[in-house]
Design brief:
Structural class: alpha+beta
Order of helices and strands: EHHEEEHEHEEEHEEEEHEEEEHEEH
Radius of gyration: 23 Å
Number of helices: 8
Number of strands: 18
Helix content: 10-25%
Amino acid sequence: MFIYRKATNDDLERIWNKDIEQNKDDERYLNWKRQYIENNKNDNCATFVVLNNEEPIGQVTVLFSPKCSAVKNKTSLCNGTNTANMNAFRIEKEFENQGHISKLVKLAEEYAKTKGIKFLTIGSEAKESRNLAIYLHFGYTEFVTSMIEDNDLILYYMKTLTKGSKKMKFNCLIPELRVFDLEKSKKFYTEILGFEIAYARNDFAMLVLGNCQIMLQQLTLPSTNGSWNVTDDMKYPLGRGINFQIKLPDISIVYNSLKHHNIEIFIDLLVSDYQENDIINHVLEFLVQDPDGYLLRFQQDIEDWHFGDNKQMADELFDLVLKGDKTATSYLYNKNDKLDTGFSILANWDKTKKIILQTTKIYKTTFDNVTEEHAFKEGE
């Protein structure tokens, strides 16, 4: 049973005591704990946690005051009035890719609104394209600034929480889906797929995910005077004969969330090649039905890759992965490399065999610090 809430003092104590235990030789953690709890107590920040059997397993923090060390003298990120900073996203490994951070972010954003916050900022290392894709997914799309921190380039983006009377920019084509149960549909699209509600009325909701827009309208039967219903014979599944393509930078976020919520995938992951004049678009996609039966096709661009620089190595390592003997790899890191989790297509040397891989974790270390566990998972 998972519980999401604003952290209590006891929650904070347990979070930091665990960190201190894991970093016994680093005295900074004691000072960080003191500052962290004091800032929460004084409303300079607010931490939100997810609990599993009453134990904190993940957290997100909103920094409201520029007095907080992470945003000190960075007023474009946190100004103490209407702009705050999202910080310290953490989730224990075994609970990754289950939608917990997404729910904590939404909880934190709603709380920030009650504090009069209109803008939230968030930062990510430029090379962490996976994180950037997630933040885009959360709606942090407006670039704010870039900074060098600990020799890494950090990109900061902003999300507007309160739109005021500013007119929304509508796509030139937006599907409006008639639904049997508007509240059920809103919950599916927001809590599972990650859409946000741009605005809503009693029987209507405008949903946004990245650059995608979908309208939901409560279906009223029997038809009333002036109704747009083509027929009263509206039965599940609705939308027969159509599917809606939703293109994202990384579909693994949505895919993992659907799996976690035990939602049946209508057509599972497949690699497709679509010809566009003299260009071939190489994509990864899957289809899922929403609560009313409408088919949603999530799609991302994808590239094939292989191990090594020769046929023997590429084919041998491909076979090890296919057998399940190889579940990890490593390579010489270049500072300009982009580190991506998510889906990719592994091929043999001749590209006559291919498999879909999902990378769940990437980390940097020195050669002499590679663990025995990692070496064993390399399978060679």
